[in-house]
Predict the 3D structure of the following.
Amino acid sequence: MRKVATMLSIFCLLTSTMVLPVQAEQSEKAEVDLAENSKSAILMEKDTGEILYKKNSEERLPPASMTKVMTMILIMEALESGKIKLDEKVRISENAASMGGSQIFLEEGEEMTVEDLLKGIAVASGNDASVALAERIAGSEKAFVEQMNKKAKELGLKNTKFKNTTGLPAEGHYSTAQDMAVMAKELLKHEQITEYTSIYDDYLRKGTEDEFWLVNTNKLVKFYKGVDGLKTGYTSEAKYCLTATAKKDEMRVIAVVMGAETTKKRNKDISAMLDYAFQQYNTKPVYDRFEQVDEMNLLKADKANVKVVTGDQVSILMKKGEKTENLEQVIEYKEDLSLPLKKGQEVGTLKLVNDKNILSETPLIVNQDIQQAGIWTLMKRTMSHFYKPF
């Protein structure tokens, strides 16, 4: 399909304040060490993906239980597709029950709902819960890990490799702060996940003799206003790690640190990055996720008009006190589109542009399956075209 570029002025935003974000090493922010206690760190605005600060962000390091960010991505995708349901009960295997490290003490043969297992992962970082859901979704942990690595490739992560679903030490299991931020951005497309990652404490098997108290390993959900996720990590090799997210007003940011010596130092660095983001920037929402922005007319499709929607929330990042004008949006469709198209398939890109500077880029997708039209449909469509009244 020929590239189509549509330029539309967004009049309601012309008076908004805004600035094109620049990366830390290209501005005065290069002198600000927001993560002095960590080996590696990054600060990202969620909707635009703009990097506000980074430190050794592409250094390969063990991610420990932050691995479960990817595990939760695949769980949320399975929920969204209907492959699993929150109230479905999962029977726990011997393999899942045998997991060491952080756990919710599942027993072989026990049955627990998907929702409680997800809660066990999101709140208590349960390795046993991670393996149990991996086995339910993919048939085995090994098959699920293959899906994790496939998803990493789809997201363009070149410095991430998974060997398990949990983050337990394994040779060749690594990631980076930058890749973790990209994974967090992907997970946050499923906003429902924060209903679990924001829980400070709760109970499993409540009211039974096996009642288990869950306490969030991410203490910032209680002590930093706006923090509602996402995942901590610790091993003796990885030290203390955290992929955090916080929302204030209409702005959501992602902060990642790896390799801090203590939880206190880890939380200090995360808090410093969040403070910096919220003090210096804000965002202006433009479109919600799955909001229609255009319509394609595909001659040979079974549906005459195909709705094109946003694959994620669309916002513009603004530095406080600065202004801009002439904000436009550009829609570019892929040139190699062919039928059939699957629901959720990427068909193009939405760009928000100011004076030739690209402020954000968001994938555009179709919101339903599109099949090749049958011969009778094509004939009727052709005939209606010829017999239109003049």
User: Anything to note?
Assistant: The chain has ten helices and 17 strands. The longest strand covers residues 239-248. The mean pLDDT is 88.
